[in-house]
Amino acid sequence: xxxxxxxxxxxxxxxxxxxxxxxxxxxxxxxxxxxxxxxxxxxxxxxxxxxxxxxxxxxxxxxxxxxxxxxxxxxxxxxxxxxxxxxxxxxxxxxxxxxxxxxxxxxxxxxx
Amino acid sequence: xxxxxxxxxxxxxxxxxxxxxxxxxxxxxxxxxxxxxxxxxxxxxxxxxxxxxxxxxxxxxxxxxxxxxxxxxxxxxxxxxxxxxxxxxxxxxxxxxxxxxxxxxxxxxxxxx
Lengths: 112, 113
Fold this sequence. Notes:
heterodimer, A: mainly beta, six-stranded mixed β-sheet, five-stranded antiparallel β-sheet, B: mainly beta, seven-stranded mixed β-sheet, 11 strands, globular
């Protein structure tokens, strides 16, 4: 089965870049997602990448994928205090009725 | 476009009581999911519907949890009787199909005392 691991906590200063890391285990073709969760709220889809891609950029967000090491990262450029939240990496195999498997989340704290 | 709607936002009940949560997915989304998120953990899938049929309920504690999606649109999740360890955020999500991205509602925060 799938297993998704994340670093638990990251603290950065406003204006710096943040890099949140994730590893996954599924060996078949898969979709990898990044979700953001603010306190007491649901999950907001930020971006996703398919496992045949190396990189995807969307405004301040850059996703990098190392397929050999099954390592995924989310880089947030010019991090703002509003980016403080928990970030979840999730994996969904590209087969049949597959489901999302989430990591435990990385808490990002941005200080002024 | 309206997002996934859930109600209530918060619920506090005593153990052994019953509770029900409601979800209205994004219009046209065939796939609906219920996730349980215990504090400090990632969401865990409870049940997945494709239209009004169940495609995965392997992690649903069927002795106390039940869910239905009549007419393939709205869904309800019920817990009867509730236990202390059921305290969690219950998230509903929907997607156009099983292999497209899922969008989440705001969740229902359940506290069992």
